[in-house]
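Changelog entry

Holo records now carry the ligand SMILES as an explicit input line rather than a separate metadata file. Below, a converted record for S-adenosylmethionine, shown in the new format.
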Amino acid sequence: MSVFDRIASHYDSPKQLELAQIILNELENSLGETNEKTLLDYGCGTGLIGLPLADRFEKVTLIDPSKEMITIVEQKVESMALKNTKAMIDHFSKEHIPEITADIIIVSLVLLHIPDTKEILEALYQVLNPKGYLLIVDFDTNEKARHEKVHSGFDQNKLKAMLETIGYQSIQSNTFYHGEELFMRQDASMFVLRAEK
Ligand SMILES: C[S@@+](CC[C@H](N)C(=O)[O-])C[C@H]1O[C@@H](n2cnc3c(N)ncnc32)[C@H](O)[C@@H]1O
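Structure line, unchanged by the conversion:
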């Protein structure tokens, strides 16, 4: 059982719900018209980001490698009676990219947990439709937040340079929130980055 399987049943804490609302408010600024678009929420966790947005998309796919997280998403999809939304247990790699496409991909608080940043950004590029875009939400670099399995946040400029080498275009980012004890019990800031195919 992975660490995310273990935390799934108590992931939706008041603090996490508050953080998700802050992220959703910021993402709403970047989304524009989405009625005829498809959304992939990659690393969806319990669906705190993808599910509240589901009504404004034609079709939504939520993907996470944690079986327990996806079980919770499926229960929420049923209780919210979302007909356009499906959840899948999966994760992408160089060798494995499922037959799926999306106009918009959201990767919220996930990149920090994936060891090979470039590999996952390349895989997501393949899944994006032409003119589609990726929205990354993550923490700015914070050397005090150290863990062997987690990136200590990201330098927005380095991430942009990496995305450009893959082929992403019109890349923009900004820090939108500073909070206390936000990231491994350290004060931290979050950024949103938008990159088009
Ligand atoms: C901190 S949670 C974020 C959940 C959700 N995106 C949110 O903002 O509330 C991180 C999630 O990333 C998932 N994850 C970990 N490694 C992953 C990978 N290689 N590919 C996709 N998701 C992954 C975990 O299972 C977990 O559900």
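Spot-checked after migration. The chain has one domain: 3-196. The radius of gyration is 16 Å.
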